[in-house]
Amino acid sequence: MALIPAGFTDDDLAKVRLRVFVDGEAEPGIDVSLARLFVRDSLKLAFAGGAIVNTDKEMRLKLPIPFANGCKVEIENRESTR
Is 59 exposed, middle or buried (0-12, 13-18, 19+ CB in 10 A)? Predict the structure, then answer.
């Protein structure tokens, strides 16, 4: 997943959640705001790791998700003002 943050504020990203369900889970195994995932609410430093890249130009997540029967990924905007 890659995002271009030019149109997003950190406040916008705090309202958007990534939820990942695998193999028919009733509750997501991952449920996190994009601001927390990309550490944008506490760190203003650019960084690049194995799974996450966070710069002024992009936010990228490479996360292998093992599953046997299926994977559902939701991105939910909990407070859309646009």
Answer: buried
Its sign, for the CA torsion 34, 39, 46, 1, is negative
N-terminal to C-terminal alpha carbon distance within the chain: 22
Helices then strands, each counted (H, E), the chain? 2, 7
Separation between Cα atoms, residue 26 and residue 1, nearest integer Å: 23
Element (H, E) at 47: strand 47-48
Rounded CA gap, 29 and 5, in Å? 25
Is residue 56's pLDDT more than 80? no
Quick check: pTM over 0.85? Answer: no
In the numeric block, the tokens 């790791």 are attached to 49
